[in-house]
Amino acid sequence: MIVYPDIDPVAVAIGPVKVHWYGLMYVLGFIAGWWLARRRAALPGSTWKPADVDDLIFFAAVGVIAGGRLGWMLFYGLDNLAADPIAFIRVWEGGMSFHGGLIGVMVAVAWFARRRARHVADVFDFTAPLPAVGLCAGRIGNFINGELWGKPTELPWGMLVDGSVLHPSQLYEAALEGVVLFAVIWWFTSRPRPRLAPSGLFLALYAAFRMAVEFVRVPDADIGYLAFGWLTMGQVLSLPVLAAGLWMLAFAYTRREPSGNHA
């Protein structure tokens, strides 16, 4: 058993201005994603330029934040939105949906691809390793905020929180959706793959990891389990993501179209 350190969610406070750890984690994720994308763009044979990466990350950041927040409000916090419409902009307090962020970033990246006359699938594939960095940072932010805890456990790494020993499900997700997912996709994209294969592998692995962790994670109190005493909203939303990822992998290796990210 490990005692939860009860970390102050505010990293820096100067008068009325407060900088939250949760917000800093997102900034860290975007900076790391930008740096990694620039490294990839600099490799011999890459069709990407550093300026392309700068603009891509900007488009993606806007899509992730807007889509993630709107998705969380619609899927998990509709009551909060009705009671306090301004809550939509208070991202630093927590409350971001991966599935909403995924839709938001897909729209933003598709717009970027059209403006730069690139194949949208190539842009998705180029960015495939990057979200895992932000996911890891965001889950650490959830841990710092003391939210999204798992079920009671007797395992030695369980966290003592308010008298109960709980699964640190935020750290499970940081490890699986962040570290493991990034390592696999970064390796997979280290050499040319068929168009859409990286995107498909990312979606399939994310959905599988998310659905697995949901079995030990406590669902939102205002939603609870949707069916069978174990089915959660996160699992339901991940099912189409898993199906899409598997379909994209099958399509990619059936068609074997060459990626436009490599000369």
Could you give a short description of this structure?
The protein has 263 residues and is mainly α. The longest helix has 26 residues. The radius of gyration is 19 Å and the shape is globular.
Walk me through this protein's architecture.
The protein has 263 residues and is mainly α. It has one domain. The chain is 59% helix and 6% strand. It has nine helices and five strands. The chain has a three-stranded mixed β-sheet with strand order 1-4-5, with no helix packed on it. It has a two-stranded antiparallel sheet with strand order 2-3. Helix 6 (131-145) packs antiparallel against helix 7 (169-188) and helix 8 (197-213) packs antiparallel against helix 9 (233-255).
Please supply descriptive tags for the structure shown above.
263 residues; mainly alpha; 6% strand
Rounded to an integer in angstroms, the radius of gyration calculated over CA atoms is 19 Å
User: Beta-sheet strand percentage?
Assistant: 5-15%
Series of H and E elements? EEEHHHHHHEEHHH
Oligomer: single chain
Q: What is the overall pLDDT average?
A: 88
Shape: globular
The N- and C-terminal alpha carbons lie at a distance of 53 Å
Give me the count of strands. 5
Query: Which class do the helix and strand fractions yield?
Result: mainly alpha
Q: What's the helix count? A: 9
Share in helix? 55-70%
Arrangement of strands in the largest sheet: 1-4-5
Q: Main beta sheet: strand number and arrangement? A: 3 strands, mixed
Number of domains: 1
